[in-house]
């Protein structure tokens, strides 16, 4: 979905009766695609944690042997296609290596989201990627597949513990739609992890077109994009990357942004380069849709400040 900067007039629609909020998790049957590696043991049971420990203090980490690139496309490939601002994330280099596809299972249904390593065994995503917003039921299992490119990935980890900002029984569920999950393998040692910076909304809004976004959207890559880049795995199996998007406003403690997103990109990081290093500054989670036309008006994001209090960062 290509949501552009909204005017003040459109912004007023956020509190009108003609808009609805839609989460970005995609509930689909993808189990046949997920089983790319033989299962040697049963997936661990996902449990709620009283507290999770973080090894770092919110700073990014690049493994020594992992190459780094500021471009999501492999060297020598070509540029943007058509009007969609997204490019396929084809790079295995850092920091793109830190973002992965989440596949969850609840009530025998599978669904997909996006997650990002923020420590060697901690993944950041949305609460609705772990908890069913309609029932409040926790997923029976959640898998994290790092750096999936055209359906290919080398590792898989399972969530063993989680902390969520909401179980969707409160009025502020959108603003608290975050979750951190502890996985059963220290994949951050291999793929690296991103840091985070809690910045005032005014600072985020002032830095127009300075952010980039990565997410495994269920509408991407589209047919022409697949053909151009020679991709074959289908939609949702290659992340979309967009540079130059903006945080456009803040309302009721919810950030509004214009990054190109769609179902499956829930939990995707909105990233800023700060002093030459990648930091997550917001967490994509939902969209505002016009009830009458069905068209998206603007996308929502969670302020990342909760990580400061959650992990005791000062």
From TrEMBL:
GO molecular function: hydrolase activity
SUPFAM superfamilies hit by this protein: Trypsin-like serine proteases (SSF50494)
Cross-referenced InterPro entries: Glutamyl_endopeptidase, Peptidase_S1_PA, Peptidase_S1_PA_chymotrypsin, Peptidase_S1A
Biased composition (Basic and acidic residues): 61-71
EC number(s) reported in the record: 3.4.21.19
Domain of life: Bacteria
Gene3D superfamilies: Trypsin-like serine proteases
Ranges where the record places region Disordered: 38-84
EC top class named in words: hydrolase
Transmembrane segments: 12-30
Alphabetical UniProt keywords: Hydrolase, Membrane, Signal, Transmembrane, Transmembrane helix
Name recorded for this polypeptide: Glutamyl endopeptidase
């Amino acid at each position: 979905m290509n949501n552009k900067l909204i005017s003040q007039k459109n912004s007023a629609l956020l509190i009108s009766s003609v808009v609805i909020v839609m989460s970005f998790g995609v509930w689909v049957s993808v189990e046949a695609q997920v089983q790319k590696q033989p299962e040697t043991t049963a997936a661990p049971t996902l449990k709620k944690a009283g507290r999770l420990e973080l090894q770092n203090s919110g700073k990014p980490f690049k493994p020594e042997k992992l190459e780094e690139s500021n471009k999501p496309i492999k060297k020598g490939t070509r540029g943007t296609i058509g009007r969609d601002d997204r490019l396929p994330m084809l790079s295995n280099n850092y920091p793109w290596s830190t973002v992965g596809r989440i596949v969850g299972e609840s009530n025998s249904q599978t669904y997909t989201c996006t997650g990002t390593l923020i420590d060697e065994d901690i993944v950041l995503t949305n609460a609705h990627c772990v908890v069913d917003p309609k029932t409040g039921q926790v997923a029976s299992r959640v898998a994290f597949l790092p750096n999936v490119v055209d359906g290919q990935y080398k590792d898989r980890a399972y969530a063993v513990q989680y902390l969520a900002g909401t179980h969707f029984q409160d009025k502020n569920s959108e603003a608290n739609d975050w979750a951190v999950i502890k996985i059963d393998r220290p994949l951050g040692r291999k793929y690296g992890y991103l840091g985070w910076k809690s910045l005032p909304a005014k600072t985020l809004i002032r830095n127009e077109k300075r952010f980039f976004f990565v997410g495994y959207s269920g509408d991407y890559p589209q047919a022409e994009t697949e053909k151009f880049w020679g991709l074959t795995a289908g939609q949702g199996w290659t992340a979309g990357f967009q540079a130059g998007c903006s945080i456009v406003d803040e309302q009721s403690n919810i950030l509004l942004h214009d990054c190109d997103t769609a179902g499956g990109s829930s939990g995707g990081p909105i990233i800023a380069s700060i002093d030459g290093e990648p930091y997550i500054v917001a967490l994509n989670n939902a969209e505002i849709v016009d009830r009458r036309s069905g068209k998206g008006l603007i996308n929502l994001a969670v302020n990342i400040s909760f990580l400061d209090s959650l992990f005791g960062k000062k």
